[in-house]
Design goal:
CATH class of the largest domain: Alpha Beta
Helix content: 40-55%
Strand order of the largest sheet: 1-2-5
Number of strands: 7
Shape: globular
Oligomer: single chain
CATH architecture of the largest domain: 3-Layer(aba) Sandwich
Number of domains: 3
Length: 265
Amino acid sequence: MSAVLEGIKILDLTEWMHGSRGTGYLADFGAEVIKVEGTRQGDPSRNLNAVRKRSVRVLPSCKWNYYFECNNRSKKSIAIDLRRKKGREILYQFGEDSSKMGRIDILHRFNEVLYNNSKEGKKSILIIDEAQFIAESTLEEIRLLLNYQLSNRFLLTIFLMGQPELVDKVKAIKQLAQRVEISYFLRSFNFKETTDYIFFREKKAGLSKNVFSKQAIEIVFEHSNGIPRIINNLCDLALLVGSGEKKTMITYEVIKDIIDDGAVF
């Protein structure tokens, strides 16, 4: 059985946590993710050592860099100096060099790529995160991309993801709102949903039993207000700390110390 994103190539120019973690998920689903790093030190998180803030060691001290390895698993990597022309030429070879093309040429070439992907049985997907920051004029341009279609199907599927303000932006463009086939609003979790979510993530990671105490989950819920992104970050750090300190259970004290140290915003 092929992976969902198999056959898709992604150039990853991100650093540190969120971008690298997001492209890591894409690699998990089968995409070929090529991490592009600078030639001086690469991704700065490669050199992230155990950081102490008061009594808490945010990262466990060991020969492996947990932080970097977790966020960049399953990726390929290449070091390129993008300040130099030769470096940029190498980068262009991985994708499509549109630096000398006009707008009409770019759109024509884009249509060719979509059509060829369709002929080869590939799906073309455009995913835009933090879309609430996109200007209305740009959203209109994105809507026009949906005009690339055959008689029986669209050649491009677009996912817009963002904060609640995105809903109002989409509604403000009537033609765009009419083209939305599926919309979903992820509200904050309540306490039971937060507990179930943590248990679910543990099970998917291969754990046969829960390692978060009830009191730990309560403070995770209190600090995160049920927002999945904050739950993820806080629990990930707690597991790293727990692993480094050889704990068998993530307790209230572990979570509280991480929060007090300001390691999670």
